[in-house]
Amino acid sequence: MFTMTLNDYKQKIINAFDSVDQNAVDSLVNMLARAYLTRSSVYVCGNGGSATISEHFTCDHSKGICTATNNTTFPRVVSLSSNIALITAIANDFAYEDVFSKQLEYLAVPGDVLVAISSSGNSPNIVNVLQKAKELKVLTCSIVGFDGGAAKKQSDLCVHINSNNYGIVEDVTQSIMHYTSAILPSKVQSF
Predict the structure, then answer these.
(1) What are the chain's domains?
(2) For 97, which DSSP code?
């Protein structure tokens, strides 16, 4: 039986945080700041826990940044993990692997941004949406764990969390999301 203390878990989170390249996170902040200032759309997606982080990203990067900039910046942030009717229609009529790429095809224009969240980096629908983004000239960032998978190789920018534990990767991803939403209001105002 596997046992872990809270201190063990805390140390694993610290180790995972230490593996994240600050320059990659800074590049993500800059990518998002430019998108928000130019009124480009930012699309976020993920499966399972990553879908939940996508939802939270949409909230904190929409209302949170608008509120923090005193209603002077109005980010356009859309979670492709949100619309269950559209997701199930695409999965039924095409394939589950297309649930994000079809939505991006319907909505995105060149210069928009896609943030793909995947612990493994190998989910077929994440790989497909990154490929579709390239076709559409949409900038891409993946936030991934494990070895980064195919998503790491296909993204314009990758924030890699070196951990093989889904919970740890999701915890650090959520913190990166919170960090970016906290830092972006001052970044937007300094651009």
Answers:
(1) 22-190 (3.40.50.10490)
(2) G
